[in-house]
Amino acid sequence: GGLVGGLRAGWRSRRTMMRPDGRRSDVDSDALQRLLIEHTEAWNSHDLDRLMSLFADDCVFEASGGPEFHGRRFVGRAQVRSAFADVFDSMPDANWGDGRHFVISEDYGVSEWRLTGTLHNGSGVDVLGCDFLTVRDNKIVRKNSFRKQRPVVAD
């Protein structure tokens, strides 16, 4: 604690930021921080309903891989849910560990993680990655994912 701990705690709960339109905005960074953490925990629970409860109806998921410059884009709850289900199916033991979460602005946060898991063919995955999350009304509207590219890890 002490003075420095108290100052840090005050900064984390509320801070003033400039919005893109030039207006000032008070940010409840604790609420966004909790959402970022819950997002990672929902992935690790492999509970698709829990995970989707964090997303807005008009959500967009931009996967780390795909044919377009932005990866593969999934638009709307049905497409996003299906893409997330495919991730769980492809790696039943997937874990997003070593999470670090950062509030960037009132509607934008970043989560870093280490994805480990086993594909159906027995090969392992072990990569660092991050999600850039855009939020509206405490729901995720855009998940833009990135991860390191490396060969499949052999046991």
Q: What labels would you give this structure?
A:
single chain; alpha+beta; disordered N terminus; 155 residues
The main sheet orders its strands as: 4-3-8-7-6-5
Low-confidence stretches: 1-13
Give the % helix. 25-40%
Which structural class is indicated by helix and strand composition?
A: alpha+beta
The major β-sheet equals: 6 strands, mixed
Total number of helical segments? 4
The proportion of residues in beta strands is 35-45%
N-C termini distance: 45 Å
Globular, elongated, flat, extended or rod-shaped: what is the shape? globular
Mean pLDDT: 86
Please state the CA-atom Rg, rounded to the nearest Å.
17 Å
SSE string, helices as H and strands as E = HEEHHEEHEEEE
Topology, number of strands: 8
What does this structure look like?
By secondary structure, the chain is α+β, with helices and mostly antiparallel strands. The protein has helices spanning about 1-15, 30-45, 50, 75-90, and strands spanning about 15-20, 25, 55-60, 75, 95-105, 110-120, 125-135, 140-145. The strands form 2 sheets. Strands 4-3-8-7-6-5 form a 6-stranded mixed beta sheet, covered by helices on one side. It has a two-stranded antiparallel ribbon with strand order 1-2. It is globular.
